[in-house]
User: Fold this.
Amino acid sequence: MPSEVPPKEKSYSRIRVESDLSLEVVILLVLGVFMLLFGIVLFKIHTGELPYTPDSTYGLFLIIVSFQIVTMGKTPFGDMRRSWAIVTIGICTAIIGMTACFIPGTLTEIVRILVGLMLFVGGISLLLQLLLSENKAKTWMKTSKLLQHLTLACGLVYTVAIALGLITLLPGITIDPVTAVLLIIYGISIFYLAGCIQKVSQLYPPEKFPELNTTDSKGGFRLLKEASISLSLAVLIMLGVLLVLLGALLFPINQGVIPFSADGELGLLLVIMAIQMTALGETPVGEYKRSWLLVSIGIIFTALGAFACIVPGILTSTLQILLGTLNILGGVILLFKRFFPILQEMRHPPSEPVVLPSILKKMLITQTILNIVAIAFGLSMLLPGLIPTMLVPGIVIINGLLLFVLGYMLQQITKIEEETTPTETI
Assistant:
């Protein structure tokens, strides 16, 4: 008789299985966690039991939206081809959101109106496209029950978005508890939509069901051409922009010229880290299989980061210790993984020395500097004052610039691999 696997071992092996969540589903899960948590917390905010920071709340929403724009070409107003113009718009949206997270009180009205327009006008636009397009609801409702669920999920998300957009544009038209209920419904609806999209992507891949693929692939001017950047590179660009902007702002912040929200900074960094973990399997301590365990940790990080952005002053020290420790451990572990094999080769040299291409040598140097900078950044978080205050902005900026350099090198290596890979002929 075959031996039975104990229930605990079965459940443990299940969470270690690699997840097949698409990037779109991952970002929807992040947005759903954010909205659901915001709705729950808003009840306590309304009674005065918890503080509230609208700037970093709106800013985080803009950054999540910008991730959709940069990585997939999905805007709040509809799906578009991911051209360089769309990527640029996404990066500009992220910069506005990041500034709102870092500096409270400066962009409050601007980000409120921008978020309100995205929800209200975007919701109307998406709902009209859903109902009027021949390739969407009209086709989906006749195809299968699964696509009928997708239609219902889309309609629900867009309708609630319109209501929330109106409330955001016209504060005071309703009471906070009503807004909280709508936010909770919005979060649950986004989870419902994410589940439908995941099932649809498995049963109806674009090549087998072209009606579900609404992107346009025609060329044009350079800014309108397809942006051939990978998901990993897109995340590097976003993180690089964040760090360069943060470093530039830290100079006047350290002089006391402008205010600073540590909660907004820490919460935002944690949410971006969560997206990297759930979408790519990339963690501060290395790259791992994108298991359900790692996805679960990413969702927890999302909740912690979103809470810090919404409610200031409660998780500040906890997140500072968490991010500082992860940066230090990540830097040390990655340096060890990189140089220990080299030391082993020096002790036991191979019969034929391995010659690395120039681009790989440069990338290894860049990654090494990044690891050292990450350790310094982590130390500055855990031990404030250890590194001189005026050096910290420089460290952060260098970190961001090195991410751009690393992204460029990865792009060059990808091009070289594509050129050297032989194409099959029929």
